[in-house]
């Protein structure tokens, strides 16, 4: 994995990869940049917010919510004291993108599809008493 001297370079490289359709590689680069020691030790910066917004977008698009969670934990360390509004903005972006994806999935399934009532799986199953009784009858019939 590439190591970037500046977070701006990681964002630039991720945008280049996105322009040629390599979302997975762009996500890996952004995640590596977020987890890098320099990202945490540098302190909050507007570029870091842009990196996190792009990271959240890619995580939701790719369905990699564990990476999004890990990235948010890393970003929280950086931004909670310096700029808490930035952290709130990133979390709100994650929520809106996730809700939009959920709405798209619901539309794909269809809004008219009502959730069906759960089936009672025990209707055809024998009760323990009946099972024991039938076992005893088999044993007595063999004697």
From TrEMBL:
Which keywords does UniProt give here? Cytoplasm, Initiation factor, Protein biosynthesis
Q: Where is the eIF3a PCI domain?
A: 8-136
Transmembrane among keywords? no
Entry's Gene Ontology BP terms? formation of cytoplasmic translation initiation complex; translation reinitiation
Q: What InterPro entries does this protein's entry cite? A: EIF3A (IPR027512), eIF3a_PCI_TPR-like (IPR054711)
One Pfam family name is eIF3a_PCI_TPR-like
Provide any one GO MF term from the record.
mRNA binding
Q: Which GO terms describe its cellular component?
A: eukaryotic translation initiation factor 3 complex, eIF3e; eukaryotic translation initiation factor 3 complex, eIF3m; multi-eIF complex
This protein is called Eukaryotic translation initiation factor 3 subunit A, related
Species: Eimeria maxima
Phylogenetic placement of the source organism: Eukaryota, Sar, Alveolata, Apicomplexa, Conoidasida
